[in-house]
Structure prediction request, 407 residues.
Amino acid sequence: MLEFEAWWLLAIPLFFGLGWFASRYDSRLSSGDRRRDAGLPDAYFRGLNFLLNEQPDKAIDAFIDVVKLDPETVDLHFALGNLFRRRGETDRAIRVHLNLAERSDLDAGQREHALFELGQDYLKAGLLDRAEDAFNRLEGTRYAAAALHHRLEIAQMVRDWPLAVELAQRLQRDLKEGRATEIAHFHCELAAQGLAGASAARFETARRELDAAREVAPAHPRPWLLRGEAAAAEGDDLAAIAAWREVERESPQFMALAAPGWLAAHQRLGRLDEGIAALEAIQGAHPSIDTFSALAAARTERDGPAQALAWAEQALRAAPSLLGLQQLLAIRVSLLDAMPATAAAPLESTRAEVELTQRLIQAQARRLSRYVCSHCGFKARQFYWQCPGCNRWDTYAPKRSEELERG
Prediction:
């Protein structure tokens, strides 16, 4: 029953086309311009019969026969092509719209419409080069703005970030759309590519792109986070800490993403105590399992497992967390490993209990450790600025699913 209802919803555009077709024939009959034996083609009624009997494939084939009989049934062509695309039959949609785009008897507006639909067919089929070509040919037409949006979509799909910057700037300038955040992300992607390269000028490239990102979106945390990473990679820990302090000031919840780097930079400068104290203050105001884990690791190295365990237990009482418990158990195991050999035998049962608890919570902890897109619900092990599922920007919170569920 659900499939039947979905088919009828998809068939709505087709019925509009058929209604237009029927009304045109009826008008011709009433005006006396048609011959006496003229009437609706048999294929039209066969198609309706197939449609009513829930045989959509045969119905569509019959309607294709209808449009072949009269080259003026342009609206029905468009209805069929759109229906093919919605059903995922992109090859058939392409044939319909390509045939329309190549017809010489259509006016300019109809050919532009066919070209725009053809570009969408190619896009859905994954033929990105053909889709881009179709949309490029719509410059200066009434479909130029819509085509520009699709061109920006394609630029992001192929990770052509310079083109993405150019197209987003055009949308912002010509159509007055708010694209500052996206443009900042595109510059950040270019900076990240530069940092990942082996060029001697990669840091200069990264700085230039991050400066451009901060110019269009000065309060966004990503440019500052990347600036800190770039400075740390370049060996300038003071500049890295200064960049991350901007994140702390503007978007402290995102410090969870910089916590390990923050502590490492302070340690290299011999200021680990200062780094831990500052991060604990952020953790108190914006609890995060990632910040908790970074602090637990730093305290274990600085103070030893016993004191780190006491701190972790106190922190978990303030903000209970299954993921935090997993980290606490890991510290407890390291503490047991540090025990003298003479005490190993009495503690053997304790270690077995801790390891059993670890195994019992492992699956649940893995499920709760994902980042979640707020738009489409896509779950990922790592944090993304652009969701791999829906391609939207800034839909991931810097929190794991356990923290989001806890509210």
Observations:
- Confidence is low (pLDDT under 50) at residues 25-39.
- The longest strand covers residues 371-372.
